[in-house]
Amino acid sequence: MSEEVKTQACPAPTGERGVRRTALIVSTLSSFVTPFMGSSVNIALPSIGRDLGMDAINLGWVATSYALAAAMLLVPFGRIADIYGRKKVFIYGTAIFSACSFLCAVATASFALIAFRFLQGIGAAMIFGTGLAILTSVFPPGDRGRVLGINVAAVYSGLSLGPFLGGLMTDALGWRSIFALNVILGTLVVSFTVWKLRGEWAGARGERFDLIGSAIYSLVLVAAMYGFSLLPSPNAFVFIVVGVIAFFVFVRWELRTESPVLDIKLFRDNRVFAFSSLAALLNYSATFAVGFLLSLYLQYVKGLSAEGAGIILVSQPVVQAVFSPFTGRLSDRIEPRIIASMGMGATVVGLALLTFLSSDTPFPFIVGSLMLLGLGFALFSSPNMNAVMSSVERRLYGVASATIGTMRLIGQMMSLGISMLVFALFIGRVQITPEYYASFLQSANTIFVIFAVLCFGGIFASLARGKVR
């Protein structure tokens, strides 16, 4: 283990077997529920729009309000969990998520639905910032990769089943049934946690919560993410600049305060944490919009139905879900940077293959490229997560877990922002009709080139992290 990691990391307290099993169950269920909610609601947006009379901008806010709330509060709630108790924050977060799911299910106006989705995002932030931290707290270092791999597999299962089950439920029972299902699942998680999960974990108990730093941090995330969502509008750059300025103010404040919400020294002094976080940001920035681009390509250029496109696109998350537990277990025995870097390399190849998309590209080529991307992400995600959680002290598990989630959300917004910017340059604000298919393909190929270059840079960030053990 490198000297910088030795000074940062210490062994996590391990719980008895029953506590470990319970922690794995509740964390896995919650890791399934939150991405399932996001992906299933996206499928139901047209039905929601028709029912509540919402225009395209309001429908966009149904998804954006949730993501903004989750991103701006992830790290603050991770810090609160480290100070006051991870299980406590997890339970409150799941309860808020479930209650707001019920409110979404009965909402009768667009404003109410958007507001409830924002509150639901607050609950999601409390879940994201604690689930992984609890797992890391109760499992010994030698088992972390395995359980984190299972956790990642649950995330991908939620992403995979969301569009399929969400579409079925919307057609058969209406869009409100999706939120109702999440009420049931969330209530089960809360009940099982209260009933079975004994103990509490608060590695930073007694430390002060940095309210001012949290407010500045939230401003940074809201300005940056909202700016990326507006690309390529000129107003987008105003918000991004505000976010950058607020970021420098935040760094200055955190370096001066005694009990920071996000210890900037982690990025300065902990090489593993810094480069693992950077690698995650680059990976999500290069991969999140792939499904969005291929969905348009398959339905417009290839003429498939939404169901047909979904069947092809599901090949990527299925491979991710199947291989993530295996790669997580592998990272317990082999340096995470080696496995994660191999995953980055496989992802680069998959993205490079997609740069050759044309109107005549055969479906097996597309499925093969998606499966390679799925394998690459499985090789990268669990080992990278293992490296992040193993590189910090027990008192920072919540902040580390929240940082991973924040990198994911920022990367997702950057990925979509890059896509929108390229579309604006090549196509403009027009509907994608047959006369624009050639321009669409040209823009998609350009986007995949950008993504491949980003991910190629991520290989070096992954390798540069140093050794965990």
Q: What's the helical proportion of residues?
A: over 70%
- What is the mean pLDDT? 84
Structural class: mainly alpha
Strands, count: 0
- Describe the largest sheet: none
> What is the CA-CA span between the terminal residues?
4 Å
| Number of continuous helical runs | 18
What is the number of independent domains?
A: 2
N-to-C SSE string, H for helix and E for strand: HHHHHHHHHHHHHHHHHH
What low-confidence regions span 5 or more consecutive residues with pLDDT below 50?
1-14
CATH class of the largest domain: Mainly Alpha
CATH architecture of the largest domain: Up-down Bundle
Question: What radius of gyration results from the CA coordinates?
Answer: 21 Å
Say what the CATH topology of the largest domain is.
Growth Hormone, Chain: A
* Outline: globular
Features:
469 residues; 2 domains; mainly alpha; disordered N terminus; Growth Hormone, Chain: A; 81% helix; 0% strand; single chain
Give structural notes.
- The chain has 469 residues and is an all-alpha fold.
- The protein has two domains: 3-209 and 259-463, Up-down Bundle (Growth Hormone, Chain: A), CATH 1.20.1250; 210-258.
- It contains 18 helices and no strands.
- It has helices at 3-8, 17-52, 56-84, 86-106, 110-138, 141-173, 176-196, 211-230, 234-256, 265-269, 271-287, 290-301, 306-313, 315-330, 336-354, 363-390, 397-426, 437-463.
- α2 packs parallel to α6 and α11 runs parallel beside α17.
- The longest helix is centred in the first third of the chain and has 36 residues, at 17-52.
- The termini are close together.
- Mean pLDDT is 84; it is low at 1-14.
